[in-house]
Predict the 3D structure of the following.
Amino acid sequence: MENNIILKMEHIFKTFPGVVALDDVHFELRREEVHVLLGENGAGKSTLVKILSGTYQKTSGQMTIFGQEIDIHNPKQAQELGIGIIYQEFNLIPKLSVGENIFLGREQTNHFGVIDQKKILTGAQKILSDLGVDVNARHLVKDLGVAQQQIVEVAKALSLDAKILIMDEPTSALTDREITELFTTIRSLKNKGVAIIYISHRLEELFEIGDRVTVLRDGKYLGTQNICDISKPELIRMMVNRELKAQFPKQKSTIGEEILRVEHLNRSEVLKDINFSVHRGEILGIAGLLGSGRTELARAIFGIDKINSGRIIIKGKRHKIRSPRNAINLGIGFLTEDRKTQGLIMQLSLKNNISLPSVERFSSFGIINNGAEDQAAKRYVKELRIKTPDLNQKVMFLSGGNQQKVVLSKWLCSKADIFIFDEPTRGIDVASRVEIYQLMNRLTAEGVAIIMISSELSEILGMCNRILVMRQGEIISEFLAEETTQEKILQSALGVSAVA
Ligand SMILES: Nc1ncnc2c1ncn2[C@@H]1O[C@H](COP(=O)(O)OP(=O)(O)OP(=O)(O)O)[C@@H](O)[C@H]1O
Ligand SMILES: [Mg+2]
């Protein structure tokens, strides 16, 4: 094989009704390389890898794998060819255990042909410990956080002995520490001869883990480069084809009166004596490792989880929040970290999803005013550059990042004045991030308060006024953004004392 090329895709086209997702794309993969696929939300990255994994059929074009010209018709065939994929949206079965999920469809049987639970568990546990992660194979997937589910997906792909491993945004739900672990795994896979196709919107990662990069824009192939020959600004220019404003365009806003105060909030073992307040015009960041209680805090305030004790004071008045409906009526909006299960109704259109929390505002006497609904949806499609053929497109057909933009629009449209954003830029491309940050600026200028939970410390430092750090269900420290550093926040989150 020339130059160790194990996979070649040429003149690939893929069309969906009303959308040309891939428009004459080329891609080539060498043995033992990490090849990064880069492009804005909706550029066609997931579509390209889904053609490789047998989920989608190309409309036209040629593919050569291990020297053989071939068409991949279904996922099983892809698996037999040695292609493993970790999808952007998880494909785990919540009711099954971690071990059962890892070996799904390849149940391990004993010599009586009976499913051997013990074999499944020990096999799965071995893969997990080889990965160096602390996940129990017996646990049910439904009890895991997003990051742990991500790890199960990696383990599942590894158990298939893939020679080509595709990772579609594997780190979007992980914090720095887990990303480091994943990268160690990727490097050892590479040394074992595995080639990796890697998709991510975090540009820093590409320079750390990638060997080559292929850039797509609007379904078109823009080129392939060695990572060591290209700079970050060059890559961004190639990707977005327009000048980008500052990465974190934080504007000074006037901090107004207190809008939300939480006092002595407790919830069994997960939240311990939480006290804090947030003011109009303020962006309050919440940092912490996975499992530190950040999302649990948001869920408690929003009325999803019951609290054992504590007071929540909104606009000077004490309220008992018993349900999300309650919270919404009090002006709270919650953008959840897991858009697939909590944020969107996949079968509904973009416009219906956006108007969902505000249905009352769009209807009179029980009849929805389609015009107003359309107008609101149109506005956000434009402001956030949501890539869609029209407002009636079902959100299941939008790309991952564009789905995230719909979740965001939904809450922006709801006219809340206290927003809790849990990982708001997860899966969002570099250009659209800036647009989301600008929207946050506009909201705070209008007197809205934002609580932003994020695993990206640069984003927290770049956009927040004040930062709370959580560890093991407690608020451990508080910093003013301009007076702190990433190291200080991380040390606090990890619970190590500062080195003098
Ligand atoms: N099943 C489908 N039906 C209709 N359109 C689709 C379908 N799958 C993808 N598309 C469209 O194809 C285009 C490319 O989508 P794709 O998911 O490949 O983007 P992406 O580069 O992975 O983006 P992101 O970074 O947001 O994940 C988008 O416009 C998307 O809406
Ligand atoms: Mg995608």
In short: The first strand starts at residue 5 and ends at 16. The pocket of adenosine-5'-triphosphate (ligand 1) is lined by residues 16, 19, 21, 39, 41-47, 88, 387, 397-402, 429 (CB under 6 Å). The chain has a mean pLDDT of 88.
